[in-house]
Amino acid sequence: MALQLSGANLSIEDIRVFLKDNQKVSITEDALERVKKSREIVEGIIANKETIYGITTGFGLFSDVLIEGHQTNQLQMNLIRSHACGMGKPFSQEVSLVMMVLRLNTLLKGHSGVTTDLVDQLIYFINERIIPIIPSQGSLGASGDLAPLSHLALALVGEGRVHYKGEDLDSREVLNRLNREPLVLKAKEGLALINGTQAMTAQGVINHIEATALGYQSEWIAALTHQALNGITDAYNENVHKVRNFKEQVEVAARMRDWLKGSQLTTRQGEVRVQDAYTLRCIPQIHGASFQVFNYVAEKLEHEMNAANDNPLIFEDGDETLVISGGNFHGQPVAFALDFLKIGISELGNVSERRLERLVNPQLNGELPAFLSPEPGLQSGVMIMQYAAASLVSENKTLAHPASVDSIPSSANQEDHVSMGTIASRHGYDMLENTRRVLAIECIIALQAAELKDASLLSPKTKAQFDTLREVVPSITEDRQFHKDIENVANYLKEQAYL
């Protein structure tokens, strides 16, 4: 089954399924007609020698420089070559693939003036999984993601580097193998490819998919910790959460009750203690707040995924044609959302590290061995796992600084305010990977603590998780290289995000 694109209604879940099932894409007939109509308008502009930004003029500060009709195609090639100034490690293949899907979806809205040849080339690259190698650094997030998207465009015209069937190759070599011609850019098309927010949005979509999955995973991991510490279930009572009015908090509490149902390790208030520490008692409030963030961010990302965000934009208003230079390429709405997402991700890691500290600290863990060591003193057990988790959450606190509060003027002050949204998206994924490793550490320690308490007493649902994870990470019977266990569990959690 193919993912059908129309320029509207594309969702984050559509992208998750597209990646999971390795889908192809197709487009609707209506979308194709809109592309053709907008292209006719561009051809008319050139024929009539009208002065329109980016079609018959230069770019940025050069917007007042007129371009001769015979040079309009060369203008577009010069644009993407000169703007391909990306640096640093490449975006992941998933992000680059999603970037192409999102750019295609934007062009299908029919406000960009591109040819059907360009649309066909994007579809071909997506469906054949010819994935541009796109450096992740170098975007200001307005006028869109110029540098990253220029590298995407270079691949389409046979001048970039691509991933193809496990190899990193020149795109021209891949196209030659497939007897496919490189795209020849026409007037407006280079600008239509690079004026937009697809780098930050694609990385943001991946961040959201994996962060949301991690939010759900953090609940069963927390449920294991809760049982290993003989936590009190009364704090998850539905009445408590309904009177707070936050839907996400109510939902987390319900899922925690479900995870803990039937456990012989949980307690009621007053049996062992009157109250648990906040990191157990307030899981619905803390995790629920992160889900509030995730829901907000999903709304903003899905708006942008289905937006016309290049410049200029082409409209038909009755009998009148309008070509308007605006600023829909400005990434500020997405940048704010992605900075907010960083906070939601960070707090999942913060609370996880505090829970796992309770599991390893003999003053707090209810008579479990210090650091769950098989032989305290001779063997360190999980002591340094807590150190490692503390390091990661501390690093997250520095990365959580909002990128969107910064701006540096560019293009000789013509582009005098920028969003830095792509930096927010990249830092967000770094934080996500850190947080996933923190939760992997809590998982490993909670599994061991539950085993020491007697895993047969776990709730049926968490016992099933225990059994599954014991296939990923074995019981700790002696000190070993725990970094391998951490990576194995973190990789398992990431893989589960797309299932």
From TrEMBL:
GO cellular component: cytoplasm
Pfam families: Lyase_aromatic
InterPro entries: Aromatic_Lyase (IPR001106), Fumarase/histidase_N (IPR024083), HutH (IPR005921), L-Aspartase-like (IPR008948), Phe/His_NH3-lyase_AS (IPR022313)
Taxonomic superkingdom: Bacteria
Post-translational modification 2,3-didehydroalanine (Ser), affected residues: 143
Biological or metabolic pathway of the protein: Amino-acid degradation; L-histidine degradation into L-glutamate; N-formimidoyl-L-glutamate from L-histidine: step 1/3
Reactions that this protein is recorded to catalyse: L-histidine = trans-urocanate + NH4(+)
SUPFAM superfamilies, A to Z: L-aspartase-like
Keywords, alphabetical: Cytoplasm, Histidine metabolism, Lyase
E.C. numbers: 4.3.1.3
Cell location: Cytoplasm
One GO term of the biological process aspect: L-histidine catabolic process to glutamate and formamide
Single GO term (MF): histidine ammonia-lyase activity
Modification after translation (UniProt): Contains an active site 4-methylidene-imidazol-5-one (MIO), which is formed autocatalytically by cyclization and dehydration of residues Ala-Ser-Gly.
Major location category of this protein: cytoplasm
Cross-link 5-imidazolinone (Ala-Gly) placement: 142-144
NCBIfam families: hutH (TIGR01225), PRK09367.1 (NF006871)
Entry similarity comment: Belongs to the PAL/histidase family.
Protein name (Swiss-Prot/TrEMBL): Histidine ammonia-lyase
Species this chain originates from: Staphylococcus massiliensis S46
